[in-house]
Automatic annotation (TrEMBL):
It holds the Pfam family WD40. One of its GO terms (biological process) is Cajal body organization. WD repeats lie at residues 263-298, 322-350. It comes from the Eukaryota. GO terms for cellular component: Cajal body. The lineage of its organism: Eukaryota, Metazoa, Ecdysozoa, Arthropoda, Hexapoda. The keyword Nucleotide-binding does not apply. One of its GO terms (molecular function) is RNA binding. PANTHER family: TELOMERASE CAJAL BODY PROTEIN 1. Belongs to the TCAB1 family. Keywords: Repeat, WD repeat. The keyword Ribonucleoprotein does not apply. This is WD repeat-containing protein 79. It comes from Manduca sexta.
Amino acid sequence: MKMEELIEDTNPIYDVNLISNNSDTYDATEVTENGLNNTNTCYQIPGLFTSKTLLELSNSSWSRSRNANEQIQPYLRGCKWSPDGTCCLCVVNNDGVHVTELPRDLYTGDVASGRLIDVLDSVIHVKESGLIYDFCWYPAMNSSIPETSCWLTTIQNSPIQMWDAYNGSLRCSYRGYNAVDEMEAALTITFTPDCSRIVAGYTKVLRTFDVERPGRDYVEHKITSPAACLATDSNLLAVGSWNSTISLYNVSETGTYKSIGKMHGHAAGVTHMKFTPDGLKLVSGARKDHRLLVWDIRYYRRPLNILHRAMDTNQRVYFDISPCGKYLVTGGTDGIVKVWDAEKNDWKSSLNTADEGDDATYKFPLHKDCCNSVSIHPCRPILATGSGQFHFTNPITKLESPEDLQKEDIDDFRDMKYSSTAENCLVFWWTGDVL
């Protein structure tokens, strides 16, 4: 099935906007083949994690070809649901970008325990020539409106590129240049909430592009440390850096930045951040840092709460917050998905003093390898998870006499990922009630 067929579907697709931070009720705009139809109707979506179990719905995996070099490892590096919930965008190491559709029977209704597991195929595959630094959907993306169906990528030695989600073609590019007029790649990208501008982070500057004006026209703002990740909400911009700090900015309508302050707390470079739906909290994670820090942006001098996950890699490990603001979900290098429920574990208003690894409301051992990404469906009780990481060759196997190796020498290798157990897959899980 091709993505164009979504337009002809008689079932409505919903562009949901949160109206209550403490409930699962949404103000939905019905999308038909004739365009938007404002029904002003509130829809109740099924609750997340109500059965405290996860049911596997679909699976897609990648493997190295038989004759490929040992260093070529096509593991998944991130997955994100489209804003309309019809498909999932994922980045695969050494294999570009893949778009995978949600099976049509999961658009509505409940799921039975005996449902067969779907084997997913990519409907779009864009092969990239270099390392993909970051990617994101157009926030107003809707499959029934072709103009909005697109995503951005920023790639090593390449400009920011916008891709068409219907056929995988390149729509346009946004290019940033340094002081000697050399094109440089952005390290991280995001859209502003109103979808009118693109914010790109570089090693020394932030550049703001107008979505409707591709090319090299941009507004530039100097920063003191490289931008590793970005998060936006309303007129706020959070910039996570490799030097472990987070900078807060107020962004005006003209694209100028006013510094609010810096937040210190992580032990290494910040790799991922996300605002809560109410815009008052910010959650951040860093490389080789077992803590997720929850910040109140009104009192940002110290973390509001500390949550724990397994994080023994420099790789970016994504987490997600449910549209209702009730759940925080993250993976880890141990393959366990952890869930914090704001009603059972108040992760948003008090400092957690629990022992590391014992503070989550729910724990699901879903993967045998690193669970590097999770993404919550915008309007259905479905969770997408991705697994995989780079596996090094075990240095001990190259020794002539491994029994002569001292214990302290073995400890030196504890952070190297040379396990023979590799799992590179994208999986959809049902988190609601099961028939």
